Amino acid sequence: MTDPISGFHTRTGMFDDWLDQRATMRAWEDFLTYRDIEQSRTSGVRREILESWSRSLASGIDATAELAPLDETEEILEDARQKNSDLRAAAHAPFEKMGPLLSEANALLILTDADGLVLEQIGDLRTHNAARSIHLIRGGKWDEAAIGTNGIGTAIRSGRPTLVHASEHFCQGIKAWTCAAAPVRDPVDQRIIGAVDLSGPPAIFRPHNVALIASVAREIEAALAERQEMRRTRLLEAFLDNGPAQGSRDAVLILDRIGRVMYHRLPSGAPRDQAAPKLSLGQQFIPLSGSMSDQDIARAIPPHLRPSGVSRLFLDGEFSGAALILPARPTAAAPAAAVEPFRIPPRAGAARDELLMVGQAPKFTAAVDLARRTAAAGSVVLIQGETGAGKELFARLIHTAAPHKGRAPFITVNCGAISAELFGSELFGHAPGAFTGATRDGKAGKFEQADGGVLCLDEIGEMPLELQPYLLRVLEQRAVYRIGCSKRRQVDVQLVAMTNRDLREEVEAGRFRRDLYYRIGAMTIEVPPLRERPCDIMGLADHFNRAVAARLHREPLILSQEAAGLLAHYDWPGNVREMRNLFERLHLMVNGTIVTEDDLPAALRSAPRQPVAVAAEPVIPANLTDMEEQAIRRTLAAEEGNLTRVAQVLGISRPTLYRKLKTYGIRRTYE
């Protein structure tokens, strides 16, 4: 029989295999010895555990560690608890309910934030005392990057309920524990905001523990949804009471305290070409914080929207969101708001100017932050992204953000531009006369040239399959052997691999080695395509416009409202590179200083406009109750009576939706 949630077998077979700790320990020791899944005898270990072991090894986790890191600073812990106050409040009821059941069960129920920091813990007192020895207490850090494979960290990393039993843990000191954990997701945007975990000695192990803990996580998420619905309703009420004045033809946008869309409205009769963004509930429109003034918020909004009214909203005296009024039809293209770019200084001895990375979209800034942290750690990193998205800039950022501040070598190799015959020589070097065509004096490879700095392998998916084991060996041993030479040459290189392919698919297709993928993919930076950064489009347009103008010693071009609207709503399949090339063309082709719609390429003019996914209503309702009823009726019609989707669109739970349907006398007419 298979558990419907975990997929684990609950009778003999898999259950017995789990209890065979000696076999698991042998597999773990074998893995640490060979550091290669393909060579290790690990066939009896579950794939999710093997993948986590590989990530742990690649992150430099000490397999002999006895305990997790502990943040003993009370101020930092209290700050984390305050930031996660909603999560803690939502967990209060299920924790109170389960607490008495665990008092004599040798088990602990634990709540963590998204970084694996323990916020709350209840359960058996004796087990709690034992947990102190491994820092499984408030302030303990249990993400994979801190203590390797464990229920909390692996559930957060994988995004699904996870069971890690005894010897399946990566670190020696925690192999005397068993744990089942599940991630907790924000009901608005589905990002992981924490985890809930059941831990104890191996005797409490049951395969169905993971189903139990998953149900606790779902109960916490339901409570979060109720709290979010209440906050959303109160934000609407605050807007009606104190929001900025608006006309019947204005668009209304209400954001929560971090800038996510809680409500949006585009009145009927608004022009089809209105410069309004494509919106959905829960989408982050702009980064928002309590320290921002009305003017700061206005400057953060995509410049072509030109809000006519901005007002911060407060609940119980605390900043809780903002209301924006967007005119039905802006009269002119607004100049792009100045966005402070991320600066990449020129390499030591290079004559070129510094490079700039322009963007404020959350996905983009998160990728930049991860690149900087990766640079500080010196770990192998994989940069994935579509062609033209700017992967090269992220590689340069890693180089200049490293401790050597860009003073060490930065060597690039395009794996797709080298023949298979010359690839090994180019990468690893060769001895004198090692093969036909080899130089008389021999040659240092790219690894030796990059010693002390960064080696960037572009299009790594093109690397010949037969050479991939050699690259893996260099990464593991931190040494190279030139072709035709037995001398070991030590190298200290941070490898940055780049690809526009999905390497996981390449692995499954047999075109890329699984063990090499686990080695280079443990730290992955996803560079978002431009279509997922709509708030950055006009800022990037202004940046490239000014950059080309400065190089050509002329004034920047001025975009007409129609041209700006086309740029803002275009999908940009060629990403940032396509935009840069566009402004190169415009500065050469446009007569005068004004860019009109006719000056743009046919692909831009003929591209379908992005639909504006906002609700339609003639005027804002007279009161909150009418507003809520209209929103439910419109969504019910739009989703053809599918109550699950209606609840998701409205950001409420199904039980709450049923209650409101009954309150307003709304009948479900679609079947």
Describe this structure in words.
- It is a single chain.
- With 671 residues, the chain is an alpha/beta fold.
- It folds into four domains: 14-227, Beta-Lactamase; 230-326, Beta-Lactamase (2-Layer Sandwich); 362-526, P-loop containing nucleotide triphosphate hydrolases (Rossmann fold, 3-Layer(aba) Sandwich); 624-663, Arc Repressor Mutant, subunit A (Orthogonal Bundle).
- A five-stranded antiparallel β-sheet has the order 2-1-5-4-3, with helices on both faces. Strands 13-16-19-12-20 form a five-stranded parallel β-sheet.
Tag the structure with descriptive keywords.
single chain, 671 residues, alpha/beta, Beta-Lactamase, Rossmann fold, 4 domains, five-stranded antiparallel beta sheet, five-stranded parallel beta sheet, 24 helices, disordered N terminus
Q: What's this entry about, in short?
A:
The protein is of the alpha/beta class. 39% of the residues lie in helices and 15% in strands. It folds into 4 domains: 14-227, 2-Layer Sandwich (Beta-Lactamase); 230-326, 2-Layer Sandwich (Beta-Lactamase); 362-526, Rossmann fold (3-Layer(aba) Sandwich), CATH 3.40.50; 624-663, Arc Repressor Mutant, subunit A (Orthogonal Bundle).
- Average pLDDT level: 82
The number of strands is 22
- Number of structural domains: 4
Give a short account of the largest sheet: 5 strands, antiparallel
Percent of residues in helices: 25-40%
Q: Tell me the CATH architecture of the largest domain.
A: 2-Layer Sandwich
- Biggest sheet, strands in spatial order? 2-1-5-4-3
What would CATH call the homologous superfamily of the largest domain?
Answer: GAF domain
How much strand content do the residues show?
A: 15-25%
In one word, what is the shape?
Answer: flat
- The whole-angstrom Rg is 28 Å
* The CATH topology of the largest domain: Beta-Lactamase
